[in-house]
Amino acid sequence: MKKVSLMRPSRRASDEMRAVSFERGVLRHAEGSCLVKFGDTHVLVAATLEERLPPWLKGQGRGWVTAEYSMLPRATLERTRREATQGKQSGRTQEIQRLIGRSLRSVTDLVGLGERQITLDCDVIQADGGTRTAAITGAWVALHDCLSWMKSRSMLRELPLRQHVAAVSCGIYEGKPVLDLDYAEDSVAETDANFVMTGEGGIVEIQGTAEKTPFSQDELLALLALARSGVDKLVALQKQAVG
After folding, report:
1. How many folded domains does the chain comprise?
2. Mean pLDDT over all residues of the chain?
3. Is 82 one of the annotated binding-site residues?
4. Going by DSSP bridges, is the β-strand pair 117-126/41-50 parallel, antiparallel, or unpaired?
5. I need a surface site. Which of 62, 163, 179, 219 has the fewest CB within 10 A?
6. Which residues form a coiled coil (predicted)?
7. Residue 1 resides in a domain
8. pLDDT by residue (tens digit) across 161-216?
């Protein structure tokens, strides 16, 4: 009997990512900026250098990298109210921006940065699944350019970036592990997971949820293998983007 292969809504192979691109220097005033696209998910990232620190870090001889995340009202099919008009951030927004900050700090030499803070503002201008993974991956490029800006002005002797970091989503869709879910898959996937990994293969964070039935250890390992291949591709694109 002939085996029927999985047909994803996007017609991609199970281990195929969406088209990914990085456009650098898109904001005139930011020390570093990047428009990152994972297919139809587009995120604008701005890196801002500030000669100040959170009060609890003062005098410790190290800097800080943090992030803010937001989704523009018409990034989605139906308009979403701005969180500012509601007077507070949602739990989802807080969780995502903390994840972005943790991810970038994991590859930054905070002592080498000095007593300064870099804030990465990640604004989703169009959403089609994987906004947090696109934000993390593009934020690395914006951070790199911010640090390069500082080095060119003799504020740093060398870039305090230890290695690359990127993120990708994986999931179980129609019973099969797939890489880089778009919204059509993410909204109905049996399992949805996000993997943040370094260019050297280190795991920064894994977020995995069984939306319907629990997933097995073998399925987790299959997702991890897909994520590793996806991050390898993303890091190669980051390297190409920053030259």
Report:
1. 1
2. 95
3. no
4. antiparallel
5. 163
6. none
7. no
8. 999 999 999 999 999 999 999 999 999 999 999 999 999 999 999 999 998 889 99
132 is in an annotated binding site: yes
* Per-residue pLDDT reduced to its tens digit, 182-196: 999 999 999 999 999
CATH code for position 195: 3.30.230.70
Would residue 8 count as lying in a domain?
no
> Is 219 inside a domain boundary?
yes
Spatial neighbors of 121 by CB under 8 A, at least 6 apart, are: 45, 46, 48, 67, 68, 70
Amino acid present at 223: L
Instruction: Decide if 104 is inside a domain.
Output: yes
Range of the domain at 188: 20-242
What are 205's two structure tokens? 């964070």
Please check if 74 is assigned to a binding site.
no
Order of strands across the sheet that contains 203-210: 176-179, 165-173, 191-198, 203-210
**Tell me, what's the pLDDT at 4?**
46
- The reply, when asked if residue 92 is annotated as ligand binding, is yes
